[in-house]
UniProtKB/TrEMBL annotation:
This is Regulatory protein YrvL. It comes from Marininema halotolerans. Keywords: Coiled coil, Membrane, Transmembrane, Transmembrane helix. Residues 132-159 form a coiled coil. The chain crosses the membrane at residues 7-31, 51-77, 89-106, 112-130. It comes from the Bacteria.
């Protein structure tokens, strides 16, 4: 009985993780669909989920390609700033072509050029933020500041 309980908890946890990844994509698509200038058309509710799952699957080749490019660029390009610029441009085009593939293979989705460029820019920026060390540094700084505030609050409470 306990194995069934643990398996159920693991399945629910997996579903929650997937939902946390898919739901922001669905929300973003829904918001961008309502902007007339972008001409993004989704003809069914299933298209939202197909597109979101497709984007979830993009993460796998993106990170593998990113690791391979990082290894290659360490040997080819000496300057880090130039290396980061080349990686960002290549990442943009990878996302662009992948979104074109999703547009082509999912029949319920129609993306205009403006919609495709907008989605590519948003997802490229998102992947850049996720992959950057700056995000981790910001989180560490936030935690340190929070601990300092707690210490100061405790000192103030003790003095009263």
């Amino acid at each position: 009985m306990s194995k069934l309980f643990v398996a159920t908890i693991l399945v629910l946890l997996l579903l929650m993780i997937i939902a946390l990844i898919i739901l922001p994509n669905v929300l973003l698509l829904w918001m961008l669909k309502n902007i007339e200038i972008l001409h993004i058309q989704l003809t069914s509710v299933g298209a939202y989920f197909k597109f979101s799952i497709g984007l979830l699957l993009l993460a796998i080749p993106t990170f593998i390609i990113d690791i391979l490019l990082e290894i290659l660029f360490v040997f080819l390009i000496r300057y880090r700033r130039m290396r980061n610029t080349v990686e960002t441009i290549m990442g943009f085009f990878l996302v662009f072509f992948y979104l074109q593939l999703l547009d082509y293979y999912i029949s319920d989705i129609t993306l205009s050029h403006a919609g495709l460029i907008t989605l590519t820019t948003l997802y490229s920026l998102l992947f850049e933020v996720i992959g950057s060390d700056r995000l981790e540094e910001m989180i560490k700084e936030f935690r340190i500041k929070r601990k300092e505030r707690k210490r100061e609050r405790r000192k103030a409470e003790r003095q009263i």
